Amino acid sequence: MEKLIGSGTKAFSSENGATGMIRFLDSPDEVLEFIDGPDVQSTIVISRGGTTTFMSPALMSGVAGLITLQGAPESHLGILSREFGIPCVMSTSFTEGISTPRGETIPADGTTVRLDIAGDQGQVFLVEQG
Amino acid sequence: MSAVTETVDIQKYLQAFLGEVPQGAEGDRQMRQRVAVPFMDTTDADVRRDRLEPAEINSWLDYAAWNLWDFILGRASEGESGLIPRQEYETVSFTQQWNNYPRFIRMLTAELGVDGLLELAKTSSLEVGTKINVTRNWAASVCPILGRGIGIELGQDTPDSRREDLETLIQFGRRLQHGTWGGGCGLVSGRGSTVPVLHPDVLSQLTAQLQPLDDPARMAAFRQFNARTELFGFMLHYDCRAGMADTGPYPLPDGRFAIVRDHFLNETAYPWSGIAEGLPYAVTQVMVFPADRVQVTVNDIQTTFSQPTNYLDYLEAGVVFARDTMDTPMGELRVLGAEEMAQISQRCQKGVLEMYRMLARKSRDEKIRDGVMVYTREFLLSHATRAGIWDKFVSEGFDIMQPNAEAAWPVLTSERAAEILTPVLLFGKGFPHVGAAS
Predict the structure, then answer these.
(1) CB B361, CB B349: distance < 8 Å
(2) For B27, which DSSP code?
(3) What is the pLDDT of residues B360-388, one digit of tens each?
(4) SS3 annotation, B369-415
(5) Domain tally for chain A?
(6) B239: which chain A residues are within 8 Å (Cβ-Cβ)?
(7) What's the CA gap between B142 and B140, in Å, rounded?
(8) Residue B5, pLDDT above cutoff 60
(9) B144 CA: distance to closest CA in chain A (Å)
(10) Residue A49 and residue B75: Cβ atoms within 8 Å?
(11) Average pLDDT, stretch B273-298?
């Protein structure tokens, strides 16, 4: 069962979306710790900005998908996600979730979501287990 | 002014330049109607002059302001960086360039002469894996002149101060553009947003090596190589597009088209260049797509956008060349085999992580200073090197921060930057007119 919880601008179109568990990465140290972990390729990471370099280890390590809270498809991260073929939804607004220290609403770490980048918009669906 | 009114106004400026002129080909057409003189176009005669008429300068400034707005629009909301403060170093770099480029451009022009500059700019038609390219044709003039606009906003200059420097920068860019294109609009926005710059003989030598990518494993390896080398190029060049450049689309005899893509992997000019040790200076990919299924544009900073957006899903054939050093002759380009592509791909993956760890340890100010070095060197380094005077540039202070750039730094790297940059980048205030008197 799925529920639409977020929408934004997709970096590129594809029938192939992504499903994975959310991980919000807020600092370079968190990014480095994350890519050394076991679940990289089954994770959809959230970053705040749309620049490439912050998320570069995650791109290189083949995360399942990317969500940004800022940025646009013409930004460097949008371009690179296209080159890597990693589904990416940018400037995403969520209707539910937890609050970051800056007051942004995002799904909690460990939540399973599906990214849909086939339509006009990028959409994030909550995948409810069971 | 109410918050609601401000929001509406910003939307107006996001939708059209000055709230009036759209993006793309229609925007180019309208700008041509608005300017007094089509000085974005170049001719054999007008690129030779050092002095310009006010109407020529102001027409060029107006077109450049629209051109910048046209392609920066999608990036204006890129958002904050968690690793490299790129907007901060770019804007400090603009002021640095405005304050140091004119002197060094005159040095380069004195060394080569105008004819020599025109000849130098033909390099982009005759070589691949070169930074003497269309991106630099644009950046070497538009970026420092944007620095002029920032300087005026900051009260460091007036629209009429340093007229000679402004003329030097405009003409340097126009000379490079004329050398590349031979006439017509110097900017890609006035050329249908395509960059088919390679000479047909050069292109045919490249396309002669194309191989079909119908084997899924071969396709996957090619796409992985493309993605990893591109990301490494971004990292090595501090998250800016100096590390990549596309040309094309080139229509092919069989009805398909090619994009030719350079990724610069081993720029030796920077203190962290050791990370790239062992990699070729550049790799060049030729990629073939079906023209009836994909349409592409390439902008002034040589980045491809496509419809549909997942253009790589339509890739049909490709080949990769290596240029081992900056001055390897074109006759010595090497076609990369699968094994070496895999090695380079893996080396780039490792290099990204090394670079990331290095960046994570640096302070924000260190990264801004590094970024200024990259952004200021990148647009003239290859030209001066080819002319044999790069060492002279350095010994005469090319890298020394100019007092106005140092003075602008605290503002441009603080939360107050938006007050300065929003009007400059979004509201068309970055290119103020000069007065009637010369």
Answers:
(1) no
(2) H
(3) 999 999 999 999 999 999 999 999 999 99
(4) HHHHHHHHHHCCHHHHHHCCCHHHHHHCCCCCCCHHHHHHHHHHCCC
(5) 1
(6) 51-53, 76
(7) 6
(8) no
(9) 22
(10) no
(11) 97
Q: Confidence band (pLDDT; 50, 70, 90) for B76? A: low
**Cβ–Cβ gap B312/A82 under 8 Å:** yes
Between positions 360 and 379 of B, the ones with CB within 8 A of A are: 360
Tens digits of residue pLDDT in B191-248: 999 999 999 999 999 999 999 999 999 999 999 999 999 999 999 999 989 999 999 9
- Would the CB atoms of B305 and A57 count as touching at under 8 Å? no
- Domain chopping of chain B, boundaries: 3-189+364-426, 200-361
- Per-residue pLDDT reduced to its tens digit, A34-79: 999 999 999 999 999 877 789 999 999 999 999 999 888 878 888 8
- Determine whether the interchain pair A51/B309 forms a contact, defined as Cβ–Cβ distance below 8 Å: no
How many CB atoms are located within 10 Å of the residue A50 CB?
Answer: 33
pLDDT at residue B46 in the model: 98
The span from the CA of B198 to the CA of B133, in Å, is 11
- Residue to test with chain A: of B69, B70, B71, B83, most A Cβ within 10 A: B83
Q: Is A114 helix (H, G, I), strand (E, B) or coil?
A: strand
Tell whether A16 lies on the interface with B, counting CB pairs under 8 A.
no
- Partner-chain contact B80 A49, CB within 8 Å: yes
Written as one letter, the residue type at B29 is R
Which of A52, A69, A86 to mutate to probe the B interface, most B CBs <10 Å? A52
pLDDT at residue B72 in the model: 77
Question: Quick one: CA dihedral B105, B111, B117, B121, positive or negative?
Answer: negative
Host domain of residue A116: 2-127
> What is the average per-residue pLDDT within B307-318?
96
Q: Chain A closest CA to B304's CA: distance in Å?
A: 9
Nearest residue, CB atoms, A52 vs list B77, B231, B313: B231
pLDDT at B77: 61
CB contact under 8 A, B356 and A59: no
Query: From the CA of A129, how many Å to the nearest CA of chain B?
Result: 31
ipTM over 0.90: yes
Which CATH number does the domain housing residue A16 bear?
A: 3.50.30.10
